Major facilitator superfamily domain-containing protein (Sphaerosporella brunnea), 477 residues
Amino acid sequence: MTFEKETLELTNNAGSTSSDEESGADLKYEQELIRRVDWRLLPILGALYSIALIDRTNLSNANVAGMNKDLGLNIGNRYSIALLVFFIPYMLFELPSNLVLRRVGAAKWLGTIAFCWGVVMIGMGFVHDWRVLTVCRTIIGFFEAGLFPGCVYLVSSWYVRFEVQKRMAIFFLISVFVGGFSSILAYGLMQMDGVGGLAGWRWIFIIEGIITVLVALFSFLAIIDFPDKVLAKRNGRFLSATDVEIIKGRIERDRADSIADPITWAKVGKHLSDFKLWVFALLFMCTAVPAYAFGLFLPILLEGMGFTAGMSQLLSTPPYIFACIASFTLSYFADKQRVRGPIIVAQAVMCISGLATIAYFSTVGIRYSGVFIGMAGAVGNIPSVLSYQSNNIRTNSKRSVSSAVQVGFGAVGGIYASLVFRSVDAPRYLPGLWATIACQLAMIVIVGFMSVYFKMQNRKQKEGKHLEGHPDFTYTL
């Protein structure tokens, strides 16, 4: 029996897999068990990444709240530099962080790095020099580097392949939904201008930093470890030994990597020689560009459309809500139909349409509708590209390396977005919008190439070739 046939049996209802009553009861319990994992794993990871996104992108909110004048960020390219420096350590330390993650444990590692960047975020509320702000952003990039690849690695380790995109979407979209309200929160904190003798933009950093520290402390207790390590931790009270074996059995039938293979530098080198990892990374870089462009520049783009600073903050939220609904709908469809590439292409086309609308229509209402369409495509492709990678690799060590490299290239996308949206191009930012559209066109070409490649390899698998080191593994198109 192939992996895909076995996975189909696991994800269908009891009646469609067996007429045997005991087998039906077992499958029902499996689904109850997975829902229990969902509720324990996804909300806390979504909460952690929510605060990461807020802390990463709140510079734009603080900028329109007066920080640019107080710190002189409106001089030259200082604002772009403050944005850019975050991504350099973010990119460099993702792979080392994932290698440390399994040794230290998910709760300890992810909670610790979140606590550390929260403390730095609080400190940003008291800086008086743009260079000190830039150093703080660099430090935050260092600590945040381990969070997203660690979360992706952890989520992909708990579920079978055609369950994973919905879960990636839930985890990521929790953060997008909460992060979408960050502009409203920032608008409220702006009203604290003068409290304690501090400007409103300073309170954005201080209060959001305190929230980060509190969520980080809670995550020490809430995050569960990898399936093969969970019983060795306090999370053993959450799952029994039998429960863990059921989950590991599902993973073993799906892709035969429920037990982690030791990570060595030789294996890291071997995995890095697989061109697919770099293709997945390039895809993620391309989809990160519009996501960061909206996250870092949306209030500024809205100001360029003629809205006030306050309205720009408030109007930044509705597109995120729409993007969450659209993304989850397409992710559900992708898992149900067992496809990845066509969904990525469809969302890239949505993003292109939205960006072109922002760029070339003169009516403010139509341009604002372009934000909804463009953001839905950009946000939706984050879980889609992550799942594309997760479905087409095997072994824990490769999953660890691949998720780190892939998310690391997302930082390259952040650098790209920081540089192409230049102050001199205000208020329409046409060069930046076109540079972002180019990335979406590249995604369509890359997915087309990989679809042809995967089809060729799957045909060879039917002729006896082992893909990803296993006789029954096939690539997901």
Summary: The longest helix spans residues 21-71. The two ends are 20 Å apart (CA to CA). The chain has one domain: 3-462.
